[in-house]
Specification:
The protein is an alpha/beta fold. The protein folds into two domains: 122 residues, Rossmann fold; 100 residues, Alpha-Beta Plaits, CATH 3.30.70.1450. The protein has seven helices and eleven strands. It has a six-stranded parallel β-sheet, with helices on both faces. About 6% of the residues have low confidence.
Length: 236
Amino acid sequence: MFVVIVGCNSTGYHLAKLLLVAQHEVVVLEKSLARCQRLWDELGSVVIHGDGTDLVDLRRAGITRADTVVAVTDKDETNLVICQMAKHAFSVDRTVATIKDTKNHTVFRILGVDSVVNSGDLVLDILERTIVESSFNHLSTLGDPNTFLVSLTIPDDASAAGKTLGELKIIRVDRNSAPGSEEQNPLSQSFPCVVVRGGKPLAPIAEMVLEARDELFAVTTSEEESNLYDILTGIW
C-alpha cells in the first residue's frame, strides 16, 4: 500500500515509522523546512518539503498513485482541504484526517472524508489503555476508527470460564427483545466472531461454554471495550 501523509508532527512521524516497519510505501509531505531537516537524517527521502494544499507539491509526493492520503496537520481546516483535494483532484480511494475540535467530525464526514480521528480522544484512549493495562490485543480497526477487532485469551481465573456466551449476554438469547432494550445493553455494539480452542476455530453460539485458555475474537467499540473485558475476566 502506498500512503501519503501530510504533516510531520508527532502523529505523522510515528505513523510513518509504523507504516515503514510494516513494509508499506510512505511519503511524508511537510511544510516546515525545520521539521524536514530534523527528519531527513532519520527517515531519508520519504520526507518531502512542500505544502499539502498545493497541487504541484501533492503531485511531487506521488499522490496520483496513492492508495490512501492521511492529513495530520495541526489545523482542522487544512486537513479538510487536503482530503477534499485528494478525493476530487486526484481520485484517491481513501482519505483519513485528524481533528482537534470534535464539532468538526460530522462536517468532515458529510464532506466526504472517509475516516475522521479525534486526536484528543485518541490520546485519552491510549492513556486509559496504559493505566488499566487491558490485555485485549487490538488486531484492526473496522471502518470507524472507534470500532475494532480484538482478541483475548480467557485467563485461568476468569469469572467467565464455565459460563455460556448466552449467560454472559455476549450473545443475545432473546432476538425479540423489547424496543429500547438495546440502550441498556452494555454490549449493544459488541459481538464475538470466533472462539479458538486447542487450535481449532469454533463458531460462537449462545450455548457455548467458555473455557480457560480459549482465545476469543470479537468486534467491539471504544465505548464498550471495558464492559466486554469486565464480563470476560472480572478483572477490570
